[in-house]
Amino acid sequence: QVQLVQSGGGLVQPGGSLRLSCVASGFTSDDYAIGWFRQAPGKEREGVSCISSFTSSIYYTESVKGRFTISKDNAKNTLYLQMNNLKLEDTAIYYCAAGQAAGIEPAEYEYWGQGTQVTVSS
């Protein structure tokens, strides 16, 4: 059974940092693309960053480039998202997800974490 269990998130001031974690079980990370998504109130869920299967190519959506870093620890089967220089517009519920996906479209991902709130506010 595939499970993704998230931790991290919280309230931070603009310019601050947070790290999200996602522990995966029930599959080998090399078999799936794995990534981070977010959904702000009133908006559609969007892809933030992902690591592809096999090649481990990394993708970032334009708005987070240079500020967010995705990484994974295969020994711990854990995915991370380090978020630096957070902005008000980064406020959203963040989800990790895994699937046999070719890109960052949420519809391509079959398995989802429970979500965690990230709030950037002064």
The major pleated sheet works out as: 7 strands, mixed
Q: Which of globular, elongated, flat, extended, rod-shaped describes the shape? A: globular
How many helices? The count is 0
Q: Mean pLDDT, as a whole number? A: 94
Span of the ends, CA to CA: 41 Å
Quaternary form: single chain
User: What is the β-strand count?
Assistant: 11
Structure classification: mainly beta
The run of helices and strands is: EEEEEEEEEEE
Radius of gyration based on Cα positions: 13 Å
- Helix fraction? under 10%
Portion of residues in beta strands equals over 45%
| Poorly predicted spans | none
What does the model show?
With 122 residues, the protein is mostly beta strands. Helices cover 0% and strands 49% of the residues. The chain contains no helices and 11 strands. It has strands spanning 3-8, 10-12, 18-25, 33-39, 46-51, 58-60, 68-73, 78-83, 92-99, 111-112, 116-120. The protein starts with a strand and ends with a strand.
Give a brief rundown of this model:
The protein is mainly β and 122 residues long. It has strands at 3-8, 10-12, 18-25, 33-39, 46-51, 58-60, 68-73, 78-83, 92-99, 111-112, 116-120.
